[in-house]
Amino acid sequence: MNTDSALLNTLLEISEDAIIVSDECCRVLRVNPTFNKCTGLDAKEVKGRILVQHDSSSREEPLLETVEKPYGKGSSWTGLIHIRKKDGTVFTANGDILTVNDGQGNPIRHIAVLRPGTSPEGHPNDKGSRQLDPLTNLPNRFLLDDRLEQALIVSRRIKKSVALFTIGLDRFITVNDGLGFAIGDMVLKKMGERLQEASRRSDTIARLSGDIFSLVMAVTSDNDTVLLAEKILKIISEPFFVVEGNEVIMTASIGISIFPADGEDAASLLKRSESAMRHAKKTGGKKYQFFAGEMNTRAKHRIETENNIRHALEQNEFLLYYQPKIDTKNEAIIGAEALIRWNNPARGLIPPGEFIPIAEESGLILQVGAWVLRRACKQCKDWLDEGLKPIRISINVASHQLRSSDFADQVIAALKETGIPPNLLELEITESNMMDNSIACMKVLQTFRDRGIHISIDDFGTGYSCLSYLSRFPITTLKIDRAFVNNLQDSNNAEVTRAIISLSHSLKLDVIAEGAEVADQVKFLGIHGCTVVQGFFYSKPVSAEVFEKMLRVGYIRKG
Question: Residues 6 or more apart from 342 whose CB is under 8 A from it?
Fold first, then answer.
């Protein structure tokens, strides 16, 4: 090893800066220990990657993101740099990218030097301190632009949306004029704290100017933005308690723009969210407004439906329909699935697909699910009191219910109040919901099984299909999804259906197929060992009165 190489190795080892060395084509050759410490990435994980993006036509993900301006290959560069750490978070620091040339001026190395502790959040230097608002200690407009641009870079890669909120207090001037600027400043500080409370840690909150704040969030659906906007409006409307016993009541107007639908760059998104916020103020305030009209229409529909669900619970507009479960060997009714319907005075019967998703997103599914549980148990008891054959009633359990701390108590209370035997109640849970709540779910399901309640896995084969949980969870029944049953002519679906039936038999689990609509499907299922079906071939879901008449007969004869 020559003297120059030995010196370079020593400098890399002892440097407190994170250093990356790349070749003439900007391909990473090596990194030093400080780089590994700051990012969790070692030399093997980054070797060969492109250091920075200097060719806009390239789709290759660079190791470094130069924030304020692009790195011009062949020149020196100083500025703010982002790098995605091994754990997925972002390491930000001020840094330099240096070009080393040979004697003829041709680049032979590119060296990036990142200085830990010099990011805007640390603000040890003047530039960093200017990126924080002195009153609220939130990012200011300069840092917001940086964070928004970074969010857009990530979103382009993973093809997700970004929402930009512009939030303005309504008639804030009356606070300054009536109570003074000191009180006004206290309100603004508390405003920043409330926005942080309402948002996620991954969101960026900034104060733009005066009483105008901004928020950047990554979204997966329109409802993400709606739920956050409603939460912000609610938390801001709560009284601000300030000094000398003063209580200030404020409201806010929110404008929302969405990337990429409303703009491809930070400036366009900010302009349009501010425009939407001004429109919200002009139309009375105390509301949120999307820049795009169709988003407002969807948001309005969601709010109206949510309010109508609350009204329906109060006015007892929900009812249960029952779809028979049939033993095909003798066509006897052995059970039923309770399915909610909404008897709306203006629209008549509304199917669950129109309101259950909104109930789940709003959290109202807890109230709706509790109603279904009580009503199904009460109906089962009424049929027993009529002297009808005991049958098992199954109800669907939502993810929110599984996560609820009092769900087990609700189920046990419903059984106790109605007096029905626990083995006449079956809880249907989808694969995905069970696995999303696996730790808590296992405990609560075991509580139910210990009491004799049956547990069915709904839509089996369409979710995780992780066979290990079948032995770990206290499951009694597998329910073959209608997607397989409705398309048994497809060899793959037929094979999956046969496999599920065989699996259930080997694990000594009951098996039922839903969505059986024609005789050939029932015949196929019976030949391969699934003799319990649910579907239109025997009966569509019917009212409690019609189902009671079916129970008095005891079977449904077909063919």
Answer: 312, 317, 318, 349, 350, 352, 354, 355
